[in-house]
Specification:
Layout (H helix, E strand, L loop, with lengths): L2 E19 L5 E20 L5 E5 L10 H9 L9 E6 L10 H16 L6 H9 L5 H6 L3 E4 L4 E4 L6 E6 L6 H6 L24 H7 L1 H10 L5 E3 L6 E5 L2 H9 L6 E8 L3 H11 L1
Parallel strand pairs: 3-4
Antiparallel strand pairs: 1-2, 2-4, 2-5, 2-10, 5-6, 7-9, 7-10, 8-9
Helix pairs in contact: 1-2, 2-3, 6-7
Bound molecules: 4-diphosphocytidyl-2-C-methyl-D-erythritol 2-phosphate and adenosine-5'-diphosphate (ADP).
4-diphosphocytidyl-2-C-methyl-D-erythritol 2-phosphate binds next to strand 1, strand 2 and helix 5.
């Protein structure tokens, strides 16, 4: 088989605690990742040459900067076939929104090309290659709901109840690097490995991002009418947790037209992995 279509699902950080800043500037975190059944769509097919081609919703990202390209390049030395790869991207996740679209695209690319180029690398090796592309890539490669520690690479799988979410993108872009280098970011939260309820946890980036981007605060205040809310990652997307699809749909229907949003159910296994397993059984 020479082609394969997989989702690159969104993630939410159900909480994000910052425990310390390391010598290299990176931060020690504790964060609970869940996957959503909504994401970008990527179709991979072997190319007629030896190059890496990306078409579709590539926005204005130069080819060499696209995380899909970087992921393909990371696998290039392990390639066991002559051909290169064509990747057709349908982008549904806001870029730099805290839902991990770029990292998820990279992880899905590693999983798919590993098959098409017959690299035969383990998921552990793919996660190791992925970590050099971004701190969030390993959790997507692993594909299981997880508590992440370290800079995001130490993963402990956890099983969470499936819930519905309405995720809102407040139309502001938050730079992850700006948040992590800001002097006002709290960096001394104690480690916590249990009692993960939303009520017992927080996102340590949220107060700072609300201050820097009032639109994020406005979004959280609006969502709070419907249920427990939080910002994901370093923002700017915010989510509300809900009991049913109907409840999530009601929130989305009332969303002011100047914001964008989507609804999705959480899952303990990434849709990319479910789809890859079915493809392997074909
Ligand atoms: C903090 C999270 C939580 O999910 O934020 P989001 O990106 O999802 O919003 C992620 O781990 C981010 O992962 P990712 O976006 O892949 O980060 P990277 O590209 O590796 O790093 C971007 C920048 O963030 C900072 N950074 C990132 C991760 C970390 N544990 N400590 C850091 O200090 C570094 O300054 C780095 O230069
Ligand atoms: N395929 C891609 N999809 C999204 N962003 C990408 C991609 N390739 C490179 N990037 C860059 O990575 C940055 C972070 O992307 P993303 O993972 O969507 O953010 P976040 O981790 O905040 O959700 C973007 O601002 C963009 O410049």
């Amino acid at each position: 088989m020479t082609s394969l279509t997989l989702m690159a699902p969104a993630k939410l950080n159900l909480f994000l605690h910052i425990n310390a800043r390391r010598e290299d500037g990176y931060h020690e975190l504790e964060t609970l990742f869940t996957f959503l059944d909504f994401g970008d769509e990527l179709t991979f097919s072997l190319s007629h040459d030896t190059k890496i081609h990306i078409t579709g919703d590539t926005a204005d990202i130069p080819l060499e900067d696209n995380l899909i390209y970087k992921a393909a390049m990371a696998l290039y030395p392990y390639k066991q076939v002559e051909q290169g790869i064509c990747v057709q991207l349908t982008k549904k996740l806001p870029m730099g929104g805290g839902v991990g679209g770029g990292s998820s695209d990279a992880a899905t690319t590693l999983l798919a090309i590993n098959q098409l180029w017959k690299c035969h690398l383990s998921n552990e090796k793919l996660a190791q290659l992925g970590l050099s592309l971004g701190a969030d890539v390993p959790v997507f490669v692993n594909g299981k709901t997880a508590l992440a520690q370290g800079v995001g690479e130490k993963l402990t799988p956890v099983t969470l109840p499936q819930r519905w979410y309405c995720v809102v993108f407040p139309n502001v872009h938050v730079s992850t690097a700006q948040v992590f280098t800001h002097p006002d970011l709290p960096r001394d939260t104690n480690k916590l490995s249990q009692h993960w309820a939303l009520s017992n946890t927080r996102n340590d980036c949220e107060a700072l991002v609300k201050k820097l981007y009032p639109e994020v605060e406005k979004t959280l205040v609006w969502l709070l009418k419907y249920g427990p809310t939080r910002m994901t990652g370093t923002g700017a997307c915010c989510f509300v947790e809900l009991d049913s699809m109907d409840a999530a749909q009601r929130v989305l229907s009332s969303l002011p037209s100047y914001w964008q949003g989507f609804i999705a159910q959480s899952s303990n296994i990434s849709t990319a992995h479910v789809q890859l397993d079915s493809w392997l059984k074909m």
